[in-house]
Amino acid sequence: MVSAAEPRSAPDRSSRCSLRPVAAAFGCEALMSIYATLWRLKFPRHGDDHTGCDWIEVIAQGVPSHIGTPTSGAASEQEDPYAAFLPPAGAVSTDHASQTMRAVVFVTEGTPKGTARSAQEYVGPLLVLSGREYATISFGQLHDMICDALRGDRPKLLAESRGPDGRGQLLFEDGRTRDIGSIGDNRPPSKR
């Protein structure tokens, strides 16, 4: 039986790190994420919603405002370890009602985290906004920004049309079209 007066030993972090390849490669700081999941929503995989499109989960990862700021009164204040991939850390307000996130990072499901620069950096995030930008942007604007990022350099979908036979066609801003078959026809276009 352990009495309250006996000191407890600190947990052995080196053995826990050896169990996690990422933590072992980057150090024990990889054990705690700087991100807080704000939401998860489905978006069109390639940025445009149309009949039969695939969907992908997009995750909004918030970085609290205190992340990367020096600890008040610390003997040796160090530089912000996240400045290379996040917007600058601002002053942390003591008024919790006026605090915004430092940043919000948008990633798709399965996006890896951990680069040569930092174990906390996402590899190829869709979008990174400052907390202030995220707090002031409308959802419609944010939706458009995420869809643009998912679309990449592909042309934007302008219209979906249906002929009298029910067959569909997509029209893109560069003038190209793509047949999508009839509603309910799940065969690939080459098999129709």
Give an overview in words:
The protein is of the alpha+beta class. The chain has 2 domains: 19-70 and 82-154, no CATH class; 155-192. The protein is built from 4 helices and 7 strands, in the order ααββββααβββ. It has helices at 13-18, 21-26, 131-136, 139-151, and strands spanning 36-44, 55-63, 103-108, 127-130, 157-162, 167-172, 177-182. The strands form 2 sheets. A 4-stranded antiparallel β-sheet has the order 1-2-3-4. It has a 3-stranded antiparallel β-sheet with strand order 5-6-7, with no helix packed on it. β5 (157-162) and β6 (167-172) form a beta hairpin. The model is unreliable at 1-24 and 73-77 (pLDDT under 50).
Nutshell version of this structure?
By secondary structure, the chain is α+β, with helices and mostly antiparallel strands.
Features:
16% helix; alpha+beta; 4 helices; 4-stranded antiparallel sheet; 3-stranded antiparallel sheet; 192 residues
